[in-house]
Amino acid sequence: MSDWVFVCPTSQLLPGEKAVAWAGDTPIVVVNLDGAFYALEDRCTHDEFELSSGDVDLAEGSITCVLHGARFSLRDGEALCAPAYEPVAKFPVKVEDGLVWTRDDRT
């Protein structure tokens, strides 16, 4: 397992906002969903485009890939509509002393 990677202070990630961190070669997008923080691999499973460029839907709890419109659940990474059918990798998030951290916990 890799080490925790600093993302940003919680004060810099308001609800609906995104931040990107790198865990080695893995880009991770972290999103504030009404005070809960979620981390997904920053690559659409349909065409490997960066999800961090897309819009966050707070009501649905999703992020949309701007390239072809695939949507993914922020809570579990599941693909919510075509053209994506495979989920995006989800990563752990921890908040300590007002700081957001994530890591690529795949082995």
From TrEMBL:
Sorted UniProt keywords: 2Fe-2S, Iron, Iron-sulfur, Metal-binding
Every Rieske domain range: 5-102
SUPFAM superfamilies xrefs: ISP domain (SSF50022)
Keyword field contains Iron-sulfur: yes
Protein name, per record: Rieske (2Fe-2S) protein
Organism (species): Lysobacter brunescens
